[in-house]
Structure formats: C-alpha cells, structure tokens
Amino acid sequence: MSSTTEREKEAPRPVRRPGDRIFEALSTSAGIMILLTLLGVAVFLTLEGLPGITASADEIGSKTGGKGFFGYVWPLVFGTVWAAVIALVIAVPVAIGVALYISHYAPRRLSSTLGYVIDLLAAVPSVVYGLWGLLFLSRELAPFYQWLTDTFGFIPFFAGNPTGGVSANSILTASLVLAVMVLPIITAICREIFLQTPRLHEEAALALGATRWEMVRLAVFPYARSGIVSASMLGLGRALGETMAVAMVLSASGVVTFNLIGSTNPSTIAANIALQFPEAFGTFTNVLIATGLVLFVITFAANFAARAIVERRKDFSGAN
C-alpha cells in the first residue's frame, strides 16, 4: 500500500503547453466578456429606463395617450406575447413535421438538400420577410380573411373587417411572417434531436411489429420531447425580439384585443421602439428604453427556460 502511495506521489504532473494556456485564457476571457456585455446591457436599460418608469402620466401623457408607463407598456407586452404565441402555434407542428420527414422519411439525397434549404431560410434578412409579408402575403390573404369574417364573424377572433377591406395587415399576418422566420431554428434543432434517437430503440419497435408512425410515436417522440420543448422556447425568444418584419407588416393601434384579422391590432415592444424612437425626445426616450428593459426581461426569461430544459436533457438516458 505504501509503495503504491509513493508511486502516485512520484507520478509526474501533466505538462501544460503554452498553447493550452493561451487557449484557456482566451476561452475564459470570451465567456467573461459575454457575461459583462449582458450585464452592461441590463445596467444601461435599468439606469436609462428608470426615469421613464417613475414618470407620471402628466409628464409623458402627450406621447402615451394620457397613460402612465404601465398603462402604456401593457398593450405592448400583450401584443408581443400574443404574436409570438400565435407564431409558435403555427410553426411548431410544421417544423416537427418537416424535421421528421428529413430525418426518417425522405431519401438521403433529398433530406440533405431539404435540410440545406431550411437552414438557408435563417440567413434571409428580416426586412426581406417584412417586404414579402407587406407586398404579397397580406394582399393574398385579404380574401381569405374576408371569408373568415363573413363566415365566423360571431367568434371574437374573427370579428370585424380586415384593414381597409383590401389589405390584411393584421396580427395574424404578422404572426405568419414570424412563424416562417422561426421555422428554420425549430426545424434544425428538432431534426438533430430526432437523428440522435438510439437506433436500437427504433429497430426494437419495428421488430415488435410497429409501423413507421408507431415507431416514431413510441420511440422517437418520447426521446425528443425535451428537445422539442427547448427548440420551441428558442423559437419563442426569436419571435419576441423581432422588429422590422413586424413593424412593416403590422398596422398597430396600441390596443388589447384577441381579434386576429381586425383593423385595430396590438403592437409589439420591438416594433414600437423602432417606429417611435427616431422622433422621441426627453422623458419619452426613457419610456421607450424602459419598454426595451421589459422586452429584455421577457426574452431573458424565455431563453433561460429553454436553457434549463436543455440542461435537463443531459441527464436523460435512453433506458428511461
């Protein structure tokens, strides 16, 4: 026993090369820089936005319709979350279907090509999506929205007429644009998660007589459940912070309404800042920065929840 202890004490320590030390220092510095940048943004938004939060309705009422800060920001928070949730409801089923087709149904050549095309959608600038939604999608959807109003107008979601009776610059159109924008993110993550399903689980399900769909439902989806949720949350974070596409497509009135195709629509925080900031001055500038702080908190919470789900997935075992 003593000889073993002596040999362990005499064993040479691993030599750390200068390149390893430099790389470790650079990696650590990069991580610290990210944290400091995040902290700096939070401090800036807090210090600059605090005067806007504490401002009275008399000080900012001319710009906020006679409302205080919280009365002004509440419709924006509602519109931001409402548009993002609608986009997720539309995008998640499509993304799961596309990812499943690429990973388990499509021929190898087609799946590779389709995967590249889906990934390229993420590289399209948001202003291009905004132009597409404004000049094409809204015009093409106007007759469909009019049919929804005539047929299902008794439902609050479809009450009222689309904007001007011709265009459809509504919250639903903006959400459709957002759904297309978050589709590549959700699809790419779901595709990788589906491909990581243990091959033995899939083969065991097929050997027991399961069909392809039953194998997917019993072997792939349970394994990928947390990954699907985390992908959806990351897509939610992307949708919450989108600015130009929503600002170009949405005809906002700053109201709180669940109507999807009406002429009065809630705005989003990011789009409102983009539209109002160039002409803002005085305390109203602090109000807009404070709304940015609210958006920062909402986005951070969504991404934090997604990260927590991803961390939980590390402990997942294929035998569970």
Automatic annotation (TrEMBL):
Name the record gives this protein: Phosphate transport system permease protein
Q: Which family does it belong to?
A: Belongs to the binding-protein-dependent transport system permease family. CysTW subfamily.
- The domain of life for this entry's organism is Bacteria
Pfam families in the record, alphabetically?
A: BPD_transp_1
Record gene name: pstC_1
Give the way it sits in the membrane: Multi-pass membrane protein
What is the first-listed, main subcellular location in coarse terms? membrane
Where do the TM regions start and end? Answer: 21-45, 72-102, 114-137, 171-190, 243-261, 281-306
The ABC transmembrane type-1 domain covers which part of the protein? 77-306
- Quote the subcellular location field of this record: Cell membrane
**What does the UniProt record say this protein does?**
Part of the binding-protein-dependent transport system for phosphate; probably responsible for the translocation of the substrate across the membrane.
Keywords assigned: Cell membrane, Membrane, Phosphate transport, Transmembrane, Transmembrane helix, Transport
